[in-house]
Design a protein that fits this description.
Layout (H helix, E strand, L loop, with lengths): L1 E4 L6 H6 L19 E3 L6 E2 L2 E2 L3 H6 L12 E4 L7 H12 L8 E2 L9 H4 L3 E5 L4 H8 L3 E4 H6 L42 E4 L6 H13 L13 E4 L3 H6 L4 E5 L17 E3 L2 H13 L1
Parallel strand pairs: 2-5, 5-6, 7-8, 7-9, 9-10, 11-12
Antiparallel strand pairs: 1-2, 1-11, 3-4
Amino acid sequence: MRFRLSNQPWPLSWLRLRPACCFSLLHSLPLQSSCGIAFDIDGVILRGRTPIGNSPSALRRLYDESGNLKLPFLFLTNGGGIPESKRAAELSELLGVKILPAQVVQGHSPFRNLLKRYENELIVVTGKGEPAEVMSAYGFKKVLSLEEYTSYFDDIDPVAQFKRWTRTTKPFNWPRHSSELAPQIDVYSDRVKAVFVASDPVDWGRDIQVLCDILTSGGLPGKECEHQPYLYFAADDLEYQAGHPWFSILTRTGVFKERGNHAEFPADLVVDTVEEAVDFILKRESS
């Protein structure tokens, strides 16, 4: 697996990475560093829930004795399914360093950019984990997971009776994250304004069927079509990687184990562990 070192001055290059995800870092991370680091997680920092490549000690080297960051970094991953705050707490526990929610950029993190547009509109989200909880944490007020939405329509998933893993009871408890009352949702009259695919769904067969019904009916299955709701997918890797300059470092702690470089997607540097990579970065910074 690989991670990347920005070769542009901080903070410009990080802000260009995913604009809305990193603004809060400006108040908590040093701004004088000449670079920032974007770590992949699986195969670089962790394997499952186990740290690899001496990653805890490597990350500690990025802090000074007072616990302040010497070199800004974040975790950039296609994964998700839980809010960034929970992921940051999990990483902090596993790695023994303080990780802020703003240092976790998941595949669905850019959906925050759409809050002003859909904050009070009915939206449906699908994906692994708790996608509706994720969107609620971003501030969206009227969110239903696709599983929740499906449960209100008896015949929308004709083979639901054979799928024990997708059975959900209703009604659902509102709100998820606040003592305030969430806006009332009437799925039989409120049109879905947007659909979000936060990660790979567990049941693609059901989800494709329901997504098609929502999109082709203008957001209200069984009714005449008006305007098709927007459909948003997370983790557009090609755009993120090709759109910004990086110094790429490939570690041999993931799928890649070869002694040379990757034949099809060569990195700028290949090392055995993330600790070796951090050592290279710190030496480069001090030179």
